[in-house]
Amino acid sequence: MRPASEALLAARRVRVGGQVHNVRRARPAGGAVVMEVGGVTSRDAAEALRGVKVELPRDALPPLARDQRYVADLEGFAAVAATGERLGEVAGVVNYGAGDILVLRNPERLVPLLAGVLVEVRDDARVVVLALPEGLP
Length: 137
Known about the structure:
Oligomer: single chain
Order of helices and strands: HEEEHEEEEEEE
Low-confidence stretches: none
Number of helices: 2
Largest sheet: 6 strands, mixed
Number of strands: 10
Helix content: 10-25%
Strand order of the largest sheet: 8-7-6-5-10-9
Structural class: mainly beta
Shape: elongated
């Protein structure tokens, strides 16, 4: 289980779809976390929240090592190739089960975050340097 998932299991409050909820119960389920939250009183209401973004307060997240980043912190960063070519802007990260994929916009592009792809993060310049896998447009 990912550290962020462990933080979800310990959370007392979460933001789901923009609304803050108290967590009544949480349990791991197949690599995900299933939660019972206050204000969601029917199965239909719970089903309506399936797949909706769940957010934790930053102070509830586990500390990171010096060379680690939370993906959300990269949103809005410019993405460039090691050659200096502009690749787009980081819009977010998705994971469909096979690994994290960096989502770029302007132009739209999906970049798998495989070993060696994320070369450098320049926090001060808000830039990520990427080495695109061969054959990726």
